[in-house]
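Example with several molecule types.
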Amino acid sequence: MRRSSRGIIITASVLVICFCALLVMMFDYHGAREEAGVTYITKGTIDTGAANLVSAIYLNYRLFDTLFELLVFSVAVLGVRFYLAQQRGNEEEVTRIPESQVIRTSADLLFPPILLLGIYLVLFGHLSPGGGFSGGTVAGTGLLLCAVALGADVVGRRFHEPTLERFEWEILLAILLLALIPVLFGRLPFTDLLPRGRLGSLASGGSILIYNALIGVKVFIGTWVIIHYFVRHRGEI
Amino acid sequence: MALINGVTIAIVLFGIGLLGLILRRDLVIKLLALGLVNGSTILCLVSLNARVDGVAPIVHSPASVPYVDPLPHALVLSAIVINFAILALALVFVMLLVERYHTTDSQRIEHEIEGERTP
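Resulting structure tokens for the full complex:
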């Protein structure tokens, strides 16, 4: 190892260790305070109608943040598509190893429950743990299981991939328009106009349910697009 | 408070990840270190918020149950999604570099780029 690189290593180690020691000493940490988040806990369900306060925050109080989170996700999906579609991967036909009957049968058996679990997580995101992001990822993973059993190109053709990719951007547009609708009624954007139902019922969360469903479909498509482009680049799963 | 709690563990993991990010030359290991840094951030956010007898903030009855603060959990959600997005995009860039230079060693890639620039 050359002398200069050893110097760099020692300097970097010392700097990082000092930085971390400083952080440890700075943190005068005595556990969470009693009054932390008490406003959200006492007023959150009345304000938003959602029992799950986490989704009440990210889909009602801080919907603006979530919008940009979605934009980052969309840009990442777009980047993966753009750069992996530019260069063709393995053009020559990869000889598929025929998958064993066990995997095909178990994929057939498991795909409907996984999809159902994803839909449940999306629809009940405001009442129980879950939400659009986790539900969409669960359903996308189910599609990955199908791709393992049948081959990614077969699944991509079966789900009409170009339509799906256009649909993903239409969903982003729909979320933007939905957030802007309150302007027509003279309110600030990102305000929730829908009525609150009885706490605990499916329709209690106002527009949280709609946002969750849109985000769920979007994340489902985005996950599948990322998986499929990686797989296509490589040839086959 | 004991010295070993979630926050200090998170800071140590952050240091390990940062060192890996600076010192390792392999691009894939750099990405793994970036994932470690992200995980330590999530651990820090969650453990700053933890209580001994805390309950998950899913309110079904307005009783005086010690619910934890839901705000850091919402931040963690954003952190997870954005980390996933960054990792996917960064992996694509690593794949492009490997296709062109046939190595994941960042220093060799830099040398080859300098060689291309000054023929």
